[in-house]
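With this grant's support, we have paired protein sequences with backbone structure tokens. One protein thus recorded is set out beneath this paragraph:

_____
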Amino acid sequence: MTSGRPTAAPPSEVEIARIRADFPLLGRTVRGGRPLVYLDSGATSQKPSVVLDAERDFYESHNAAVHRGAHQLAEEATDAFEAARETVARFLGADPGEVVFTKNGTEGLNLLAYAFSNAAAPGALDGADAEWAQRLRLGPGDEVVVTEMEHHANLVPWQEVCRRTGATLRWIGVTDDGELDVEALEVITERTKVVALTHVSNVLGTLNDLGPDSPVVAAARAVGALVVVDACQSAPHLDITDLTAEGSGIDALVFTGHKTLGPSGVGVLWARRGLLEAMPPFLTGGSMIEVVRMEGSTYAAPPARFEAGVPMAAQAVGLAAGLDYLTETGLDRVHAHDQQLMGHTLDVLADRPWVRVLGPERTSRRVGAVAFVVDGVHPHDVGQVLDDSGVAVRTGHHCAWPLHRRLRVPASTRASFGIYTTLEEVDAFAEALDRVPEIFGMTG
């Protein structure tokens, strides 16, 4: 879903109450017995009982090293791990052979980025399809394009690749209202080999149009550049199968488990089969090999080539349970719920003239998060006031320093939503926020 328009009704209050009952942590209190209002799902989501149970069941009933051993437990563990891969593939509308398990989204982006610097090694692309091999070759005169709204995980790896290969890093700017400056796409040229960008800004919630005819994707396709998408913030809220569909113009994307109701320690890299088959490995060792001799080794076909060592099997099983939970709820309904929360949050903040919201004004241009500043009060102080009332938000630069510099603020406070967030929690957040002017002696 590259559009911001929901296609279904949000869950009812009764359904949301039922959903919240599935998340044990949401029932706890904080700060002297205050009910927890968790508005930090953009940093990490809470986990439903089915995820906790799936991970626990793996350890209690099937725990063994995956893809090793011929005994029954090893077979069961391997089956569970590969079944999790199939679940991820269904969630993405992709083939299981295109799904690589990683530690998190950051590792997935590094895996991709390092493929370009590793491709420069002698013999690294021997046997690779000529077209894909050419697209992986990066050197002086070539360019990588990112955007000014990237999380550091989709910026620093590309900075490093450019430093290692001699390529040049360029970027698409951000407008004053937090949108990509699609009127200035001259940075994408015949020299561009990679365009890497976020689907949804982790700070502003800006939803970038990544349809095949969108300005950025169309410009990248026109010059044959690989398009890499950070879907960490969109995967918990949107149906993203249109990004992996044939003809989408997207070549690879990543998302992370801990933001999609799953455990920490597991993420996903999806990439076109031809790209994975051409990519040199990122990590080497056991499980990713084909033949090993003292003189050298050959590597297994993807996805095994990129899953060296004993994989995070229990976490993958937990992730699959989290993705099934989202799918069974209905991602169109999840998105509609998010839009309802977004609209209400923007409304209550608009009623407080001492709050300045960052990013797009329209609800349909946002997903999952609202960042704001209170001029004259540091975001950390705002966050502390909220925390004293039991409201958990994120403060700081949110691993996006360049974006904050572009918006001319040192940091921000961010409220972000999950499938379990309620309108009443948004009201509690607004009520707690009203303590800020009183505490800091603001007038006006």
Summary: The CA atoms of residues 9 and 347 lie 20 Å apart. The mean pLDDT is 96.
